[in-house]
Specification:
Length: 361
């Protein structure tokens, strides 16, 4: 087996022990005579996995009983619409903090359902190089909620503080940095994440939501799109993505075995430091366009002196076994997504490759 250095932005790297466990358990799961993929989502075998995933998430994050944990389909993109459908009641507005492509897409969905406000937007000529400061937030104290995207995969920016929003519920799309470090769930009314970055395969969204917000949701929308429907049915109203939830359970067990989120944070910060130090250490050749206090720990972006050199870099890196380094088509440049499962060894190897490439130019 020859595995590459995977820097894909998503679907992204998964921990090798988790993949190997799935391989062992694929054909017959725990002596049940069949694969978990073949088990009923209402049977006891799958039910145990489902409940373990929820319990592990509560334990690792510190999620109290005032929150529901939901496993939903449609990824984070469905949540852009679903949260507005549930929480943006007629005559109400909501505040959106724009820091990149995905927060703008969330705003677009809300515009179809109500009258959301842009409470912050740090774009310059369509490019985001930082997140807003607290004093730049123009918040409405009567808003139904404040929505933010905590990490921006395309532009490589990340919030490194929790914005103060008063008594208004703070909703956060954490798709690309969920579980990268410990965080205080009580500061949020809702957090949600597509699983395919840090916690599992694609095809699943994890939603953590205060029960009072769920109860206050609109009842005049389709039943399948109501949060209370899924809460009342323990995310089993319709057939869930059982294999994805099984993989999330396994990833969470792996994280717990590593020492929890504090240990994960330590490793993530070390990886990011190695890569950013390499970029900043040769600023005449490599250039990170993101302001230092807004740099993402998950998605490191940088540029080379010319687009031709960037193309050459990606081409040679791919031949050398480094996958996923081409920047997003809307931003260009280079991007290394170093989520939780990206090994320190891969980052070290990338830095070594960068040094060799620099010498060849």
């Amino acid at each position: 087996m020859s595995r590459v250095h995977n820097f894909n932005a998503g679907p992204a790297a998964l921990p090798l022990p988790v993949l190997e466990r799935a391989q062992r358990e694929m054909v017959e799961f725990e002596g049940s005579g069949m694969s978990l993929l073949e088990h009923s989502h209402r049977g006891k075998v799958y039910e145990a996995v489902h409940n373990q995933a929820i319990a592990l998430l509560r334990e690792l994050v510190g999620i109290g009983d005032e929150y529901e944990i939901l496993f939903l389909q449609g990824g984070a993109s469905l949540q852009f619409a679903m949260l507005a459908m549930n929480l943006l009641h007629p005559g109400k507005s909501a505040d959106y903090l724009l820091t990149g492509v995905w927060s703008k897409k969330a705003l677009s969905e809300a515009k179809l359902l109500g009258k959301p406000r842009v409470a912050a937007d740090t774009a310059k000529d369509g490019v985001y190089t930082r997140v807003p400061r607290q004093d730049e937030l123009s918040l409405d104290p009567e808003a139904a909620y404040v929505h933010m995207t905590t990490n921006n995969t395309i532009f490589g920016t990340q919030w490194h503080y929790d914005p103060e929003v008063g008594s208004v519920p703070l909703l956060a799309d954490m798709s690309s940095d969920f579980l990268w470090k410990p965080f205080d769930i009580k500061r949020y009314g809702m957090v949600y994440a597509g699983a395919q970055k840090n916690i599992g395969p694609s095809g699943l969204a994890v939603v953590v939501m205060r029960k009072d917000l769920i109860a206050a949701g609109r009842k005049d929308i389709p039943v399948i799109l109501r949060y209370d429907t899924h809460a009342e049915n323990q995310s089993l109203y319709n057939t869930p993505n059982t294999f994805a939830i099984y993989m999330v359970r396994n990833v969470l067990e792996h994280v717990k075995g590593m020492g929890g989120l504090a240990a994960v944070e330590k490793t993530n910060r070390a990886k990011a430091k190695v890569l950013y130090d390499a970029i900043d250490g040769d600023a005449d050749f490599w250039r990170c366009p993101v302001e230092k206090d807004s740099r993402s720990t998950m998605n490191v972006v940088w540029r080379l002196p010319t687009e031709e050199l960037e193309e050459r870099f990606v081409k040679e890196a791919t031949k050398a076994g480094f996958v996923g380094l081409k920047g997003h088509r809307s931003a260009g440049g280079i991007r290394a997504s170093i989520y939780n499962a990206a090994p320190e060894e891969s980052v070290a190897a990338l830095v070594e490759f960068m040094a060799a490439f620099r010498k060849s130019c």
